[in-house]
Amino acid sequence: MRKSIGFLGAVSLFALISACSPRGDSTTEISKEEAAAGEKPQVKLIERELLFGNPDRSQGRLSPDGSMMSFRAPLDGVMNLWVAPAGDIDAAEPVTHDTGRGIPRHFWALDSKHLLYTRDKKGDENWHLYSIDLESRKIVDLSPYEGVQAQMIAQSESHPGIAIVGMNDRDPRWHDLYRVNLKTAERKLLLENDGFATFFFDNDLQLRLATESTPSGGFNVFEWRDEEWLQLFEIPVADTFTTQILGFDAANNGIFMLDSRERDKAALVHLDLESGDTEILAASELADISKVFFHPRNHEPIAYAVNIHTNKWTALEEDYADNFSALNASVEGNFDILASTLDASRWVLYTDRGNASPVYQVFHSGNNKLDQLFVTNPKLDGLPLATMYSQTIRARDGKDLISYLTLPADADKNGSVSAPVPMVLLVHGGPWARDTFGYSGAVQWLANRGYAVLQVNFRASIGFGKVFVNAGNGEWAGAMHDDLIDAVDWAIEKGITRPDKVAIMGGSYGGYATLVGLTFTPEKFACGVDIVGPSNLNTLLDSIPPYWEGYRNTLHAAVGNPETAEGRKLLQERSPLNRTDKIVRPLLIGQGANDPRVKQAESDQIVAAMKEKDIPVTYILYPDEGHGFQKPENKLSFFAASEAFLADCIGGSYQPIGEDLSGSSIQVVYGADFVPGLPQALDKAKIIATNMETAE
Asked: Which InterPro entries match (predicted)?
């Protein structure tokens, strides 16, 4: 059902900061405290471009028949798609030649003859779906309509060369269903949609199920039977973020679901559509079932994962028990199963130790052999990467907050420090998402600059049961923020940091949390970095993209209902914009001009309010970005400025901005003088910082 993607899009900083290849050796600049003491950093600074840059390769995939492999890799500095015979990566050739923001996502058609990918325009999220014929190398836009968002709905091995695609060209609120030819882009209308949020097709590519929002914010599930839609069951609003349909069984008579109804933690269940009988296949009392690995051809679940601190995989079928015993014994760190060949003989794994570059591998289920597909960023090998430690922090009301602590490598004493260090509270987006264990360029960057990094799964984060998710309802800037404050207090009590040396930083909801931190608890943080964070909850909910209409009631139930007087009052009270006069600490804001979720006005209005009150703020805008920064040059420029900002605020080491603004579209709309070295770097890059006329 894909409702748990996060209102503000679960923007992680790592997702914002993948960039280009290094330009050369860095100039190391040391912190104020080190300069005063005449000391030098004990750990060499890692180039920003290595941490924030485009990886050498990413998104490793095998074709469904196992004959080919594909991946994303830079071509002239832009992430494009490459293909090669399976196992012969040196023979890889590019099949796209994008020169803009790059290709963010790709996957295989089940016929193994076409590669599919999505791409938008300057971050507007009007995704076009493209098909590449790998024999002719011809690229076809399957949704060639301006201002239209395409959604890949379904495909089937029994209908090669065909995809079911949703497009909202008739009504921007609703995606109509089309049967689309992958070679010609010819489309045939299957259904005009006037109110369904999601659709589900069976394994024979027949439309079977649809969901529709209820007034309370839950969803009714309907089945198409005898030429009419019949209601099957309801997903109550309390279960919307922990219940979803996964797919049909082999006979197309039943569905597999993650289901939290009548329980707290989401279980894997099978529901017979005719009788309504439900069978629980797997459950955990500790956390939701987070992932299920299905056989691509017989559609039976092979294994499931539960992720508390890390993924723990368990085989469901005895035939695969030996495979998972071998994987659990041989894979170091965390691993995900991303895909499988149709015969389930080879599985694509993403393996991650946290303090090294992640690795894509191929597991052969017949003999338990594990082959390396590629290392995402081999340039990280041998660098002083920091270790991530799992922590469970107790909130003031007794809830367990699953968290992750990363310490500077030179200060790390097996998860503790001998003396406090500056700390950055790094808040995830969503908020209906979660932080997980694993490598993060942002985390490694901050730790390398001398900061402890704390990531907290505050209430409303997903994966820990519906009670934990729903404890965040109506608690933006309330109990959700209390969780973050409790985590900071934990770190201070443990001697990890000092009360005057904590910064807050985040993207999307994490950007909102940053603004809340500086307005609701104005002296708790030394400074904040907000990336595409909303400042006014009323205007945020009033300006959601039209194609989110099917989830409007769910958002109102979780955040606050602007259609009621009580809801408007709550949203007004929880909006940082209305408390700008409380800000007493430095703030840096980054915004994409084309963001459809958190529109530019959200940043404009809080900067205008701060400017009117003579409160220092630095506002950086990118005219060719959306909800986060995708272009390597833009990522590098923003995080170069952020690094100088944080060093000036809480005293970490930093690499001078240098030429890291070169080639970016950066516009410092206001406050360049508040970031050390930024005016000089702007002059060097021949970029003029302007006053913020548009925000007044």
From this structure: 6-blade_b-propeller_TolB-like, AB_hydrolase_fold, Peptidase_S9_cat
Amino acid letter for position 143: S
Place of tokens 């985590």: 487
Residue 683 annotated among the catalytic residues of the structure:
no
Which residue do the tokens 């201002």 mark? 147
Strand-pairing partners, residue 618, are: 588
Which listed residue (4, 508, 637, 653) is catalytic? 508
3-state secondary structure 452-479: EEEEECCCCCCCCCHHHHHCCCCCCCCH
CATH numeric code, 13-52+381-695: 3.40.50.1820
- Annotated catalytic, 400? no
In tens, the pLDDT along 293-342 reads 999 999 999 999 999 999 999 999 999 999 999 999 999 889 999 999 99
Task: With CA atoms as reference, report the closest residue to 360 among 69, 12, 48, 50.
Answer: 69
Reported in sequence order, the residue ranges of 407-459 that DSSP labels E, i.e. its strands, are 423-427, 452-456
Active site residue 508: yes
Which of the four pLDDT bands, split at 50, 70 and 90, describes residue 687? Answer: low
Q: Omega before 431 cis (within 30°)?
A: yes
Distance from CA of residue 359 to its chain's centroid? 19
Question: Helices (DSSP H) in 522-655: which residue ranges?
Answer: 537-542, 552-559, 565-573, 600-612, 632-650
Q: Which CATH class is domain 57-195?
A: mainly beta
Residues 132/133/134/138 CA torsion (nearest 10 deg): -80
Question: How far apart are the C-alpha atoms of 370 and 202, rounded to whole Å?
Answer: 33
Catalytic residue among 260, 627, 637, 664: 627
Given the residues 259, 288, 595, 604, select the one marked as catalytic: 595
Structure tokens at 323: 């495979």
Domain with CATH 2.120.10.30 in the chain: 57-195
Q: Tens digit of pLDDT for each residue in 602-645?
A: 999 999 999 999 999 999 999 999 999 999 899 999 999 999 99
How many whole angstroms separate alpha carbon 207 and alpha carbon 189? 12
pTM above 0.85, yes or no: yes
Residues 548, 550: Cα–Cα separation, whole Å: 5
If one counts every other C-beta atom within 10 angstroms of the C-beta of residue 135, the result is 8
What's the token pair of residue 696? 């007044």
Nearest 5°: phi and psi at 337?
-100, 115
